[in-house]
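WARN no homologs supplied; continuing
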Amino acid sequence: MELRLLGPVEVSTGDRLWEVGPPQRRHVLAALAVDAARPVTTETLIDRVWDEAPPGARRTLQVHLTHLRRLLERVTGGETTLLRRSGGYVLDLEPSRVDLHRFRELVRRSRSAAEPAPLLREARALWRGEPLAGLAGEWAAGSRQAWRRWYGDATVAWARAELAAANPDEVIGPLLDLAAEQPLAESVAAVLLRALHAAGRSAEALRHYADLRDHLAAELGADPGAELQAVHQAILRGEPDPPPAARPAAAVVPPLLPADVPGFAGRDEHLSRLDKLLARPASGTSTAVVISAVSGTAGVGKTALAVHWAHTVADQFPDGRLYVNLRGFEPSGRVMDPAEAVRGFLDALGVPPSRIPPDPDAQVARYRALLAGRRVLIVLDNARDAEQVRPLLPGTPSALVLVTSRNQLTGLIVTEGAHPLALDVLSPAESRDLLIQRLGNDRVAGEPRAVREIIDACARLPLALSVAAARAQQTGFPLAALAAELGEAGRRLSALDAGDPVSDVRAVFSWSYATLTPSAARLFRLLGLHPGADLATGAAAALAGEPVPGVRAQLAQLARANLLVEHAPGRYTQHDLLRTYAAELTRAHDSADARRHAESRLLAYYTHTACAANRLLYPTLEPIAVPLDPPPSGVAPEHLADHGSALAWLAAEHANLLAALGRAAESGAHAVTWQLAWGLDTFQYRQWHWHDHAATWLAAVTAARRLGHATAEGYAHRRLSDAEGVLNHPEAAYEHAEQALRLFSAAADRFGEGCVHLDLSMLAERQGDNEQALAHARRALDVAREIGHERQQARALNTVGWFHALLGDQAAALDFCGEALAVNLRLGDTESTAMTLDSIGFAYRNLGDHGPAVASYERAIAIYRELGYSFPTADTLVRLGETHEAAGHPEAARAAWHEALKIFLELGHSMAAEVRAKLRALGGARGQG
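OK structure emitted
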């Protein structure tokens, strides 16, 4: 029996195909087959089959599993292949009987084979078309994407092997097909050019290079990489065998590694094994090295080893180093979402926040595209499980991924070809070397017995030894005194390699804590209340309720005591065990009132600063519906001078603000929850953080309802409706807009009602009902005039004008929009001014009056760029290009559309396809498809 996934999902015996059943049943079979011979939990199966599990999903799954069990028993002649396991199921089948696993095994074997071409040829022959053909949903789509990437890598490796055997004609056809599927893949293009040249088709190779060069310029505004240029030059020179693998040009990627570990000692065997793994050929599908402690012990030095080794081999990764702490075992349970890590890497790779796609899958694709072919080292520290890591794996074997975790991450070993590296406590000799590095040889050699006692008491755990050494450095006391202190806690410390690491390390932490001044000790305890991963000095001052200068000195003391790390200027973080220890101390030593006041001060600091920043980003906003109370005593919100400083602060604190909002919601601080959502609103809107935007306003809806504040609840429903609309959830968008309208009507809030009608007009436009959209816009205008609200009148006038233009009445459009523009300019509402200019440009273009249309569009684009709006910029560029084309200026149209296409591609927006079509029709986008 064979199971086939690399095409339609099929079960076969010899030449016979067995009927599996409907698509959903084939989906269940595929979800089991990808983990053949390994248990799959029921929850995982449900997640793979349904994007959103419907009611009765478990019951439906059980029905499919029953049918599949009967089918497989018929196929195998009565053998039970589908087995029930605790919490899930296992397809008890040799993985080699599944074409996907056989494909991967053949590719793996080819990497060490003297003649890899036959193995790779056999692997490619297993593909029968679109993998998982006919199966819908996110899991199937994501799997197809990953598997196609593997197939592409295998095809390139096969082509190289055939070229080495002087068989260029064999590979040209498949490479041309692959190049059509991956038009920007330079590794594919390089081997195709070599094959064409070797087959005597050099002119065709040069034409393909020229097309690709134009394609890269049009799509990404980039030139071909170094390898492709080298092959091109070799063909021009007539060299018979162009170089196969020149290294791509170095990418500008910041070295994000933390500082190397001071006094690192030991681990020679582990460092050597990592060096050997690095020396392996970078081909096939293996892209990760997994470091995990067998016992799962925290503090065993996983991060130290990873960071130290990364520094020793940094020069072998000329295109950059990336690092992220995934907080997999965060004591508060706030594990980092992979999407957050991807967004951080996109920031590091130079993608402006406004151009990061809103869709998480598009963000992953953008991240992988940026790393394609680059020699980059990626350190994923403190991972929770394989699922947290997978979205962060690049799609190119040129990058190396180093993962640390307290878990073994077996899933990565099985499915991603990762290499496990077990890490245990230090040997006695390595422990002594660590103390020598920290304390000096003379001091260690002078008290050999005390050193042995310290090593034994610390159970050779690197973290415990490091903290003990810090204590010895700070006090300057004889090591015998430290050994005596350790001996008092010896019973607990002796269990470090088998017990709970938090309780066992506590005594070691206490020695450093005991050296602190009272104010620094209090601050350390209160840090256990902070909900985010790191904090700035101002936030620490708010927690303590003290002036910043004094708190800055306390933070420096904590850093010197190794109880805190200043990972960036003025920003601090802690190891998760230290955070747990701090949280325990504050519960034990600070009263409930003291803890509550500290949290209130912290939330007030974040809330007041965020709301002030929001006002700087959008000065013409209406007064906040839930007014802020004055900051409590001891809180000094950040003074943000201008738009730029507000934007920078919100970007730096975004994750902390989301965590603070979550803490406020959990603790019942409903006003603060709503205010934080308001403070984040403009930043998240303009920077395209749409998923966060939806989450914050959903929390704000609940908070306002519990406050009994109808206007605030209506406002929250409005903003949530906006987010749902952008995320393409029209039913939810309408539901929230209509709920907002009911709330405003009940509260006799005419301004709110008018705002909702403007929202409904936009939703109607998305649904293609411009008549209904105009009706809502007119109602909004009537309300604005009734209450005499000028800014709202201007917005409504522009919206009415826009829909008149869409419905063909350009004269009316210009009348309404002209009136709106005059009001917006007088009020200084730059955002509305840009929107109105866009509408005016649209009306003039429809009239064939191209000069005023171009001028209006260009003014709108300049404002959008200044405000940091990405999508509206691209949208208006499209219309500007259409106007230039209609005016008979194709080069100007091409320039506008190229710029729009670049933005849409960075956003992962579907409009990119429409712009490509325009460029093709213009004749300026050869090879684009």
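The chain is about 65% helix and 5% strand.
OK
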